[in-house]
Protein backbone atom coordinates (compact mmCIF):
# COMPACT_ATOMS: atom_id res chain seq x y z
CA UNK A 1 0.00 0.00 0.00
CA UNK A 2 1.24 3.47 -0.82
CA UNK A 3 1.90 5.87 2.05
CA UNK A 4 0.70 9.48 2.17
CA UNK A 5 4.05 10.94 1.04
CA UNK A 6 4.29 8.73 -2.02
CA UNK A 7 0.69 9.55 -2.96
CA UNK A 8 1.50 13.24 -2.69
CA UNK A 9 4.76 13.01 -4.64
CA UNK A 10 2.96 11.09 -7.38
CA UNK A 11 0.34 13.84 -7.53
CA UNK A 12 3.06 16.49 -7.68
CA UNK A 13 4.77 14.76 -10.61
CA UNK A 14 1.47 14.40 -12.47
CA UNK A 15 0.56 18.01 -11.85
CA UNK A 16 3.98 19.22 -13.06
CA UNK A 17 3.79 17.04 -16.17
CA UNK A 18 0.23 18.15 -17.00
CA UNK A 19 1.20 21.75 -16.56
CA UNK A 20 4.26 21.33 -18.75
CA UNK A 21 2.18 19.62 -21.44
CA UNK A 22 -0.15 22.64 -21.48
CA UNK A 23 2.38 25.44 -21.13
CA UNK A 24 5.27 23.86 -23.04
CA UNK A 25 7.76 25.93 -21.03
CA UNK A 26 9.43 24.70 -17.89
CA UNK A 27 10.06 28.25 -16.69
CA UNK A 28 6.29 28.70 -16.45
CA UNK A 29 5.97 25.92 -13.86
CA UNK A 30 5.93 27.06 -10.29
CA UNK A 31 5.79 25.51 -6.85
CA UNK A 32 3.00 27.91 -5.95
CA UNK A 33 0.79 26.80 -8.85
CA UNK A 34 1.37 23.11 -8.12
CA UNK A 35 0.69 23.62 -4.41
CA UNK A 36 -2.50 25.50 -5.22
CA UNK A 37 -3.72 22.83 -7.61
CA UNK A 38 -3.07 20.06 -5.08
CA UNK A 39 -4.37 22.12 -2.18
CA UNK A 40 -1.19 21.74 -0.12
CA UNK A 41 1.21 24.28 1.34
CA UNK A 42 4.40 25.33 -0.45
CA UNK A 43 6.26 24.37 2.72
CA UNK A 44 4.96 20.83 2.44
CA UNK A 45 6.11 20.63 -1.19
CA UNK A 46 9.51 21.99 -0.22
CA UNK A 47 10.03 19.08 2.16
CA UNK A 48 10.07 16.78 -0.87
CA UNK A 49 11.52 18.94 -3.62
CA UNK A 50 13.99 21.81 -3.82
CA UNK A 51 13.11 23.04 -7.35
CA UNK A 52 10.82 22.13 -10.24
CA UNK A 53 13.81 20.41 -11.85
CA UNK A 54 14.04 18.29 -8.70
CA UNK A 55 10.48 17.03 -9.26
CA UNK A 56 11.47 15.54 -12.61
CA UNK A 57 14.82 14.27 -11.37
CA UNK A 58 13.25 12.37 -8.48
CA UNK A 59 10.60 10.89 -10.77
CA UNK A 60 13.30 9.79 -13.22
CA UNK A 61 15.33 8.21 -10.39
CA UNK A 62 12.30 6.44 -8.99
CA UNK A 63 11.43 4.86 -12.36
CA UNK A 64 14.96 3.63 -12.97
CA UNK A 65 15.51 2.39 -9.42
CA UNK A 66 12.39 0.27 -9.67
CA UNK A 67 13.49 -1.08 -13.07
CA UNK A 68 16.98 -1.93 -11.78
CA UNK A 69 15.53 -3.66 -8.71
CA UNK A 70 13.42 -5.90 -10.92
CA UNK A 71 16.29 -6.53 -13.32
CA UNK A 72 18.76 -7.35 -10.53
CA UNK A 73 16.36 -9.96 -9.17
CA UNK A 74 16.24 -11.68 -12.58
CA UNK A 75 20.04 -11.54 -12.90
CA UNK A 76 20.51 -12.96 -9.41
CA UNK A 77 18.20 -15.89 -10.19
CA UNK A 78 20.02 -16.75 -13.44
CA UNK A 79 22.22 -19.85 -13.47
CA UNK A 80 22.56 -20.96 -17.11
CA UNK A 81 23.31 -19.05 -20.36
CA UNK A 82 19.62 -19.44 -21.20
CA UNK A 83 18.65 -17.77 -17.90
CA UNK A 84 21.01 -14.86 -18.61
CA UNK A 85 19.61 -14.48 -22.12
CA UNK A 86 16.14 -14.42 -20.60
CA UNK A 87 17.22 -11.79 -18.04
CA UNK A 88 18.52 -9.72 -20.96
CA UNK A 89 15.19 -9.98 -22.79
CA UNK A 90 13.06 -9.45 -19.69
CA UNK A 91 14.69 -6.10 -19.10
CA UNK A 92 13.34 -4.71 -22.39
CA UNK A 93 9.90 -6.18 -21.76
CA UNK A 94 9.74 -4.68 -18.29
CA UNK A 95 11.00 -1.34 -19.59
CA UNK A 96 8.22 -1.11 -22.19
CA UNK A 97 5.51 -2.40 -19.82
CA UNK A 98 6.30 0.13 -17.12
CA UNK A 99 6.52 3.22 -19.32
CA UNK A 100 4.20 5.89 -17.99
CA UNK A 101 1.64 7.65 -20.14
CA UNK A 102 3.83 10.73 -20.03
CA UNK A 103 7.01 8.92 -20.96
CA UNK A 104 7.55 11.19 -24.00
CA UNK A 105 7.77 14.31 -21.83
CA UNK A 106 9.78 12.58 -19.14
CA UNK A 107 12.23 11.41 -21.77
CA UNK A 108 12.58 14.88 -23.27
CA UNK A 109 13.24 16.40 -19.86
CA UNK A 110 15.81 13.73 -19.08
CA UNK A 111 17.71 14.88 -22.17
CA UNK A 112 17.43 18.57 -21.32
CA UNK A 113 17.49 19.39 -17.60
CA UNK A 114 21.12 19.37 -16.39
CA UNK A 115 20.53 17.29 -13.25
CA UNK A 116 18.43 14.81 -15.24
CA UNK A 117 21.08 14.63 -18.00
CA UNK A 118 23.71 13.90 -15.35
CA UNK A 119 21.58 11.12 -13.90
CA UNK A 120 20.90 9.79 -17.40
CA UNK A 121 24.65 9.60 -18.12
CA UNK A 122 25.35 7.85 -14.84
CA UNK A 123 22.50 5.42 -15.35
CA UNK A 124 23.66 4.68 -18.87
CA UNK A 125 26.95 3.40 -17.45
CA UNK A 126 25.03 1.21 -15.00
CA UNK A 127 22.84 -0.20 -17.79
CA UNK A 128 25.90 -0.87 -19.96
CA UNK A 129 27.62 -2.73 -17.12
CA UNK A 130 24.60 -5.01 -16.77
CA UNK A 131 24.46 -5.61 -20.51
CA UNK A 132 28.16 -6.53 -20.38
CA UNK A 133 27.54 -9.07 -17.62
CA UNK A 134 24.53 -10.58 -19.40
CA UNK A 135 26.27 -10.82 -22.78
CA UNK A 136 29.28 -12.45 -21.14
CA UNK A 137 27.17 -15.10 -19.44
CA UNK A 138 24.31 -15.42 -21.92
CA UNK A 139 26.50 -15.74 -25.01
CA UNK A 140 29.64 -17.32 -23.54
CA UNK A 141 32.99 -17.77 -25.25
CA UNK A 142 33.55 -14.20 -26.41
CA UNK A 143 36.75 -12.39 -25.63
CA UNK A 144 36.73 -9.27 -23.45
CA UNK A 145 37.14 -6.86 -26.37
CA UNK A 146 34.18 -8.30 -28.25
CA UNK A 147 32.04 -8.18 -25.11
CA UNK A 148 32.92 -4.50 -24.64
CA UNK A 149 32.15 -3.61 -28.26
CA UNK A 150 28.90 -5.54 -28.27
CA UNK A 151 27.69 -4.11 -24.98
CA UNK A 152 28.51 -0.60 -26.20
CA UNK A 153 26.52 -1.19 -29.37
CA UNK A 154 23.58 -2.73 -27.50
CA UNK A 155 23.54 0.30 -25.18
CA UNK A 156 23.64 2.68 -28.15
CA UNK A 157 20.70 0.88 -29.74
CA UNK A 158 18.78 0.69 -26.48
CA UNK A 159 18.92 4.48 -26.07
CA UNK A 160 17.62 4.86 -29.63
CA UNK A 161 14.89 2.39 -28.77
CA UNK A 162 13.87 4.47 -25.74
CA UNK A 163 13.64 7.61 -27.88
CA UNK A 164 11.49 5.74 -30.41
CA UNK A 165 9.21 3.84 -28.11
CA UNK A 166 8.21 6.78 -25.89
CA UNK A 167 6.99 8.64 -28.97
CA UNK A 168 4.71 5.94 -30.38
CA UNK A 169 1.28 4.72 -29.18
CA UNK A 170 1.22 2.00 -26.53
CA UNK A 171 -0.21 -0.66 -28.88
CA UNK A 172 2.69 -0.27 -31.31
CA UNK A 173 5.38 -0.61 -28.65
CA UNK A 174 5.21 -4.40 -28.27
CA UNK A 175 5.50 -4.90 -32.04
CA UNK A 176 8.70 -2.90 -32.30
CA UNK A 177 10.00 -4.51 -29.11
CA UNK A 178 9.77 -7.92 -30.73
CA UNK A 179 11.68 -6.74 -33.84
CA UNK A 180 14.20 -4.91 -31.70
CA UNK A 181 14.94 -7.99 -29.62
CA UNK A 182 15.34 -10.11 -32.74
CA UNK A 183 17.79 -7.58 -34.11
CA UNK A 184 19.84 -7.66 -30.90
CA UNK A 185 19.78 -11.46 -30.75
CA UNK A 186 21.01 -11.73 -34.29
CA UNK A 187 23.76 -9.27 -33.52
CA UNK A 188 24.86 -11.16 -30.40
CA UNK A 189 24.92 -14.51 -32.21
CA UNK A 190 26.90 -13.14 -35.13
CA UNK A 191 30.47 -14.29 -35.53
CA UNK A 192 31.29 -12.29 -38.67
CA UNK A 193 30.94 -9.14 -36.60
CA UNK A 194 34.33 -9.73 -35.01
CA UNK B 1 29.29 30.90 -48.60
CA UNK B 2 28.12 34.51 -48.74
CA UNK B 3 29.17 37.06 -46.12
CA UNK B 4 25.83 36.99 -44.26
CA UNK B 5 25.83 33.21 -43.95
CA UNK B 6 29.46 33.26 -42.80
CA UNK B 7 28.60 35.83 -40.16
CA UNK B 8 25.56 33.85 -39.08
CA UNK B 9 27.63 30.69 -38.65
CA UNK B 10 30.24 32.63 -36.67
CA UNK B 11 27.56 34.03 -34.38
CA UNK B 12 26.15 30.55 -33.82
CA UNK B 13 29.59 29.22 -32.90
CA UNK B 14 30.28 32.13 -30.59
CA UNK B 15 26.84 31.76 -28.98
CA UNK B 16 27.43 28.09 -28.26
CA UNK B 17 30.81 28.86 -26.67
CA UNK B 18 29.23 31.56 -24.53
CA UNK B 19 26.27 29.41 -23.52
CA UNK B 20 28.67 26.69 -22.43
CA UNK B 21 30.71 29.20 -20.45
CA UNK B 22 27.58 30.61 -18.80
CA UNK B 23 26.81 27.07 -17.59
CA UNK B 24 23.10 27.79 -17.46
CA UNK B 25 20.05 25.95 -18.67
CA UNK B 26 18.97 27.35 -22.04
CA UNK B 27 15.56 28.58 -20.84
CA UNK B 28 17.21 30.82 -18.26
CA UNK B 29 19.36 32.70 -20.79
CA UNK B 30 18.06 35.95 -22.22
CA UNK B 31 19.19 37.49 -25.47
CA UNK B 32 20.58 40.49 -23.60
CA UNK B 33 22.65 38.25 -21.29
CA UNK B 34 23.93 36.34 -24.27
CA UNK B 35 24.95 39.49 -26.18
CA UNK B 36 26.73 40.70 -23.04
CA UNK B 37 28.60 37.40 -22.63
CA UNK B 38 29.55 37.46 -26.31
CA UNK B 39 30.66 41.09 -26.02
CA UNK B 40 28.55 41.88 -29.04
CA UNK B 41 25.98 44.66 -29.54
CA UNK B 42 22.47 43.28 -29.10
CA UNK B 43 21.36 44.60 -32.50
CA UNK B 44 24.05 42.55 -34.22
CA UNK B 45 22.45 39.45 -32.74
CA UNK B 46 18.90 40.54 -33.52
CA UNK B 47 19.88 41.25 -37.13
CA UNK B 48 20.21 37.52 -37.62
CA UNK B 49 18.18 35.82 -34.91
CA UNK B 50 14.88 36.40 -33.14
CA UNK B 51 15.86 34.82 -29.83
CA UNK B 52 17.98 32.07 -28.25
CA UNK B 53 15.60 29.41 -29.59
CA UNK B 54 16.14 30.78 -33.09
CA UNK B 55 19.92 30.32 -32.78
CA UNK B 56 19.50 26.66 -31.88
CA UNK B 57 16.91 26.14 -34.60
CA UNK B 58 19.25 27.64 -37.19
CA UNK B 59 22.11 25.42 -36.07
CA UNK B 60 19.89 22.35 -36.12
CA UNK B 61 18.66 23.19 -39.63
CA UNK B 62 22.17 24.00 -40.86
CA UNK B 63 23.24 20.41 -40.14
CA UNK B 64 20.09 18.66 -41.33
CA UNK B 65 20.03 20.64 -44.61
CA UNK B 66 23.44 19.21 -45.50
CA UNK B 67 22.38 15.65 -44.70
CA UNK B 68 19.16 16.08 -46.65
CA UNK B 69 21.11 17.35 -49.68
CA UNK B 70 23.44 14.33 -49.41
CA UNK B 71 20.49 11.93 -49.24
CA UNK B 72 18.55 13.54 -52.10
CA UNK B 73 21.58 13.53 -54.40
CA UNK B 74 22.55 10.00 -53.34
CA UNK B 75 19.09 8.55 -53.94
CA UNK B 76 18.89 10.26 -57.33
CA UNK B 77 22.21 8.71 -58.37
CA UNK B 78 21.45 5.25 -57.00
CA UNK B 79 21.64 2.81 -59.89
CA UNK B 80 22.52 -0.51 -58.24
CA UNK B 81 21.92 -2.16 -54.83
CA UNK B 82 25.56 -1.52 -54.00
CA UNK B 83 25.08 2.22 -54.64
CA UNK B 84 22.23 2.17 -52.11
CA UNK B 85 24.32 0.23 -49.57
CA UNK B 86 27.14 2.74 -49.99
CA UNK B 87 24.68 5.57 -49.57
CA UNK B 88 23.44 4.13 -46.28
CA UNK B 89 26.99 4.04 -44.93
CA UNK B 90 28.07 7.40 -46.32
CA UNK B 91 24.96 9.08 -44.87
CA UNK B 92 25.67 7.78 -41.38
CA UNK B 93 29.30 8.90 -41.75
CA UNK B 94 28.14 12.32 -42.95
CA UNK B 95 25.89 12.68 -39.91
CA UNK B 96 28.79 11.92 -37.60
CA UNK B 97 31.25 14.15 -39.46
CA UNK B 98 28.87 17.10 -39.44
CA UNK B 99 28.45 17.09 -35.69
CA UNK B 100 30.10 20.24 -34.35
CA UNK B 101 32.11 20.36 -31.11
CA UNK B 102 29.08 21.78 -29.31
CA UNK B 103 26.67 19.12 -30.61
CA UNK B 104 25.92 17.95 -27.03
CA UNK B 105 24.61 21.42 -26.24
CA UNK B 106 22.41 21.61 -29.34
CA UNK B 107 21.20 18.03 -28.88
CA UNK B 108 20.13 18.69 -25.33
CA UNK B 109 18.40 22.03 -26.08
CA UNK B 110 16.42 20.50 -28.95
CA UNK B 111 14.44 18.47 -26.42
CA UNK B 112 13.19 21.57 -24.74
CA UNK B 113 12.74 24.26 -27.38
CA UNK B 114 9.35 23.74 -29.07
CA UNK B 115 10.43 24.85 -32.57
CA UNK B 116 13.50 22.59 -32.37
CA UNK B 117 11.36 19.68 -31.20
CA UNK B 118 9.01 20.22 -34.13
CA UNK B 119 11.99 20.30 -36.50
CA UNK B 120 13.30 17.09 -34.88
CA UNK B 121 9.96 15.37 -35.54
CA UNK B 122 9.95 16.56 -39.14
CA UNK B 123 13.52 15.36 -39.71
CA UNK B 124 12.77 12.00 -38.15
CA UNK B 125 9.85 11.45 -40.53
CA UNK B 126 11.99 12.56 -43.46
CA UNK B 127 14.86 10.19 -42.52
CA UNK B 128 12.44 7.30 -42.10
CA UNK B 129 11.08 7.87 -45.60
CA UNK B 130 14.58 8.03 -47.10
CA UNK B 131 15.85 5.02 -45.13
CA UNK B 132 12.91 3.02 -46.48
CA UNK B 133 13.81 4.00 -50.04
CA UNK B 134 17.47 3.08 -49.50
CA UNK B 135 16.59 -0.32 -48.00
CA UNK B 136 14.24 -1.01 -50.91
CA UNK B 137 16.97 -0.20 -53.42
CA UNK B 138 19.89 -1.75 -51.53
CA UNK B 139 18.30 -4.96 -50.33
CA UNK B 140 15.66 -5.60 -53.00
CA UNK B 141 12.83 -8.12 -52.83
CA UNK B 142 11.38 -7.18 -49.46
CA UNK B 143 7.64 -6.78 -49.01
CA UNK B 144 6.18 -3.47 -47.81
CA UNK B 145 5.53 -4.51 -44.22
CA UNK B 146 9.12 -5.72 -43.85
CA UNK B 147 10.40 -2.47 -45.35
CA UNK B 148 8.34 -0.52 -42.82
CA UNK B 149 9.56 -2.57 -39.86
CA UNK B 150 13.17 -2.49 -40.93
CA UNK B 151 13.05 1.24 -41.67
CA UNK B 152 11.80 1.79 -38.11
CA UNK B 153 14.60 -0.30 -36.64
CA UNK B 154 17.30 1.42 -38.68
CA UNK B 155 15.84 4.80 -37.74
CA UNK B 156 15.78 4.09 -34.03
CA UNK B 157 19.31 2.66 -34.22
CA UNK B 158 20.48 5.81 -35.97
CA UNK B 159 18.99 8.04 -33.28
CA UNK B 160 20.63 5.91 -30.60
CA UNK B 161 23.92 6.29 -32.41
CA UNK B 162 23.51 10.07 -32.64
CA UNK B 163 22.68 10.19 -28.93
CA UNK B 164 25.98 8.41 -28.30
CA UNK B 165 28.02 10.48 -30.77
CA UNK B 166 27.11 13.90 -29.40
CA UNK B 167 28.94 13.04 -26.19
CA UNK B 168 31.68 10.79 -27.52
CA UNK B 169 35.01 11.99 -28.88
CA UNK B 170 35.93 11.54 -32.54
CA UNK B 171 37.92 8.35 -31.99
CA UNK B 172 35.10 6.70 -30.01
CA UNK B 173 32.59 7.70 -32.69
CA UNK B 174 34.64 6.09 -35.45
CA UNK B 175 35.07 2.89 -33.45
CA UNK B 176 31.37 2.44 -32.85
CA UNK B 177 30.55 3.58 -36.40
CA UNK B 178 32.27 0.52 -37.87
CA UNK B 179 30.37 -1.87 -35.61
CA UNK B 180 27.17 0.08 -36.16
CA UNK B 181 27.41 -0.25 -39.95
CA UNK B 182 28.18 -3.96 -39.68
CA UNK B 183 25.20 -4.49 -37.48
CA UNK B 184 22.83 -2.60 -39.79
CA UNK B 185 24.12 -4.61 -42.75
CA UNK B 186 23.66 -7.86 -40.90
CA UNK B 187 20.16 -6.89 -39.88
CA UNK B 188 19.15 -5.93 -43.41
CA UNK B 189 20.52 -9.17 -44.85
CA UNK B 190 18.70 -11.29 -42.30
CA UNK B 191 15.91 -13.48 -43.51
CA UNK B 192 15.10 -15.12 -40.16
CA UNK B 193 13.93 -11.73 -38.93
CA UNK B 194 10.66 -12.07 -40.83
Task: Write a compact overview of the structure shown.
With 194 residues, chain A is mostly helical. Chain A contains nine helices and no strands.
Low-confidence stretches of chain A: none
User: What proportion strand of chain A?
Assistant: under 5%
Helix content of chain A: over 70%
CATH T-level fold name of the largest domain in chain A: Tetracycline Repressor, domain 2
CATH superfamily membership of the largest domain in chain A: Tetracycline Repressor, domain 2
Helix content of chain B: over 70%
Structural description of this entry:
The complex is a heterodimer of chains A (194) and B (194). Chain A folds into 2 domains: 1-49; 53-189, Tetracycline Repressor, domain 2. Helix content of chain A is 80%, strand content 0%. Chain A contains 9 helices and no strands. The longest helix of chain B has 25 residues, at 52-76. In chain B, α4 packs parallel to α7 (114-138), α5 (81-98) runs antiparallel to α9 (170-189) and α7 crosses α8 (144-165). Chain B is an all-alpha fold and 194 residues long. Classes of the chains: A mainly alpha (194), B mainly alpha (194).
Please describe the structure with a list of short key phrases separated by commas or semicolons.
heterodimer, A: 194 residues, mainly alpha, Tetracycline Repressor, domain 2, 2 domains, 80% helix, 0% strand, B: 194 residues, 9 helices, 78% helix
List the helices and strands and how they pair.
The complex is a heterodimer of chains A (194) and B (194).
Chain A (H helix, E strand, L loop, with lengths): L3 H20 L7 H8 L3 H7 L3 H26 L3 H17 L5 H10 L1 H25 L5 H22 L4 H20 L5
Chain B lengths: L2 H20 L8 H8 L3 H5 L5 H25 L4 H18 L4 H8 L3 H25 L5 H22 L4 H20 L5
Helix pairs in contact in B: 1-2, 4-5, 4-7, 5-7, 5-9, 7-8, 8-9
Amino acid sequence: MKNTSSILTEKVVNSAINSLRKKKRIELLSFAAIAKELDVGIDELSTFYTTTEDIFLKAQKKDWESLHRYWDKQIKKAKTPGDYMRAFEIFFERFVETLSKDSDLRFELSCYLPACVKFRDKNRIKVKEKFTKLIKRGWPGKDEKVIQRQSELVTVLFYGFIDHVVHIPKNERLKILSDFRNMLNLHLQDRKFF
Amino acid sequence: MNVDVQKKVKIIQKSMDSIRKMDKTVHTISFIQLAHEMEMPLNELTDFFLDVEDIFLNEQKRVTRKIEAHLEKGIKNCKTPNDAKDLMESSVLKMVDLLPDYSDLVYSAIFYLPKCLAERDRTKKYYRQKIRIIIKKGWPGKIDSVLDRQANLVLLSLYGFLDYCVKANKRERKEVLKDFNNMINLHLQDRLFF
